[in-house]
Design a protein that fits this description.
- The protein is α+β, with helices and mostly antiparallel strands.
- 36% of the residues lie in helices and 24% in strands.
Length: 168
């Protein structure tokens, strides 16, 4: 990730060609976010949610302010359950500020993962089968269609991961 994109103060659009660049982009978005992160992915496996550094960034984001919120929705939660113990621990600690849903049947055809930060910065991967994506900063008008897309997917949401363990 270039320092210019990392410290940009005006609208910036940067094409990304690899998953590694996208992992970095998610980190940058978490660092920039002040109040809300919306995340949609197929299962979370490509974007580094299992990393200790990611858990530290998410914790720092959630500590930035009382209203900080993360809404994540994925088609399948299994990978997150099996590979992301730090994320699950965060969900236990920050359950009031984090929600992880599973998509309902109506949204299972969605295959374009995205992260929107504060309704103005975003990462949009054009299709899960390819590595092409775009990272955009400080462009609320360009983020609006992705927010609407996220909200449509979110509306189908079913309980996904919880910070509590139920059962005997």
């Amino acid at each position: 990730m270039s320092e210019a994109a990392d410290s940009a103060t005006g609208p910036v659009e940067r094409p990304l060609a690899s998953i590694a660049e996208q992992v970095e982009a998610v980190d940058v978005l978490i660092d920039r976010a002040r109040s809300r992160l919306r995340i949609f992915d197929v299962d979370g496996s490509d974007w580094g949610w299992q990393r200790a550094e990611r858990a530290e960034r998410v914790t720092a984001f959630l500590r930035r302010g009382r209203g900080a919120r993360i809404d994540m929705i994925v088609h399948e939660t299994r990978w997150l359950e099996q590979s992301c113990p730090r994320l699950l621990a965060l969900l236990r600690t920050w359950g009031h500020a984090m929600t992880v849903y599973r998509t309902g049947p109506e949204a299972r055809s969605a295959m374009d993962p995205l992260v929107v930060a504060d309704d103005r910065h975003f990462l949009h991967r054009f299709h899960v089968d390819g590595a092409r994506a775009v990272l955009v900063f400080d462009t609320p008008s360009a983020a609006r269609p992705l927010i609407e897309r996220f909200d449509e997917i979110w509306a189908t949401g079913e309980p996904g991961l919880s910070g509590t363990v139920l059962g005997l």
